[in-house]
Amino acid sequence: MTDGFARRHVRSLTAVLSVASLALVIAAVRGFVPASAVPHAPDAVLHALPTVNAALSAAAIGTIAVGWRAIRNGNVRRHKAAMLASTLLFVLFLAFYLYRIVVEGTTGFGGPEAVYTYVYLPILIIHMGLAMVSIPLVYYALLLAGTREISEIPATNHAKVGRVAASLWLVSFALGIVVYLLLYVLY
Q1: 112, 114, 118, 105: which is closest to 29 by C-alpha?
Q2: Among 49, 53, 104, 125, which residue has the fewest nearby CB atoms (within 10 Å)?
Q3: Residue 50 exposure: Cα atoms within 13 Å on the Cβ side
Q4: Over 70: is that where the pLDDT of 54 sits?
Q5: Eight-class DSSP state of 137
Q6: Which residues contact 96 (CB under 8 A, 6 or more apart)?
Q7: Membrane-spanning regions, if any (predicted)?
Q8: 47 Cβ partners below 8 Å, 6+ apart?
Q9: Neighbours of 133 (CB within 10 A)
Q10: What does the alpha-carbon distance between residue 187 and residue 118 come to, in Å, rounded to a whole number?
Q11: How many Cβ atoms sit within 10 Å of the Cβ of residue 39?
Q12: Are 76 and 148 in contact (CB under 8 A)?
């Protein structure tokens, strides 16, 4: 690899991408992106998106686990493919999630107040917090891996940051599925 801009500025790019990503999510959730800014899908598609996102989350849990196992077994090529698949699944999840939020807004919890207060809300807060913390860690690990030769990666923080990112990502995806179950299946 050359000594390009991205290679020299991994931390700065991580910060810029993280802030931009979080700003986009916050703008969508807070209603700053008008529904008229995106085409309106049929109601059946909009209603299917939470289930599609739960499936994408489950698939991402699988690809992260495959990637983790692959690197522990020394299979760098399989690790790279699995982690890129995890990233693609997350990007699809986020695109569908943000689209639905922009078009329909957030979904209110329909269950009992006690379940909302003592179960749903804590799970949602932890899920969202882990997702927000994961974003810069994932960007950092991806940028390190993408700007270096495979032989150079062990000399970076990629493995250390990647382990933390993967752990938080796994828990966030799992809690996201719990949120889905509480919102769309149980209540």
Answers
A1: 105
A2: 125
A3: 17
A4: yes
A5: H
A6: 49, 52, 53, 56
A7: 12-33, 45-69, 81-99, 119-143, 164-186
A8: none
A9: 16
A10: 15
A11: 8
A12: no
| 3-state helix, strand and coil shares in percent for the chain, rounded to the nearest 5 | 85, 0, 15
Q: What tokens appear for 45 in the block?
A: 């598609």
Quickly state the pLDDT bin for 2 (edges 50, 70, 90): low
Distant-in-sequence, close-in-space partners of 29: CB < 8 Å, separation ≥ 6: 101, 106
HSE (side-chain half, CA atoms, 13 Å) at 49: 22
Q: What is the pTM of this model?
A: 0.91
Type of residue at 165: A
> For the residues 123-136, what does the mean pLDDT come to?
96
Domains of the chain in start order, with CATH, are: 5-186 (1.20.120)
183, 50 Cβ separation under 8 angstroms? yes
Give me Rg for the CA atoms of the chain: 18
Q: CB burial class (10 A; 0-12, 13-18, 19+) of residue 35? A: middle
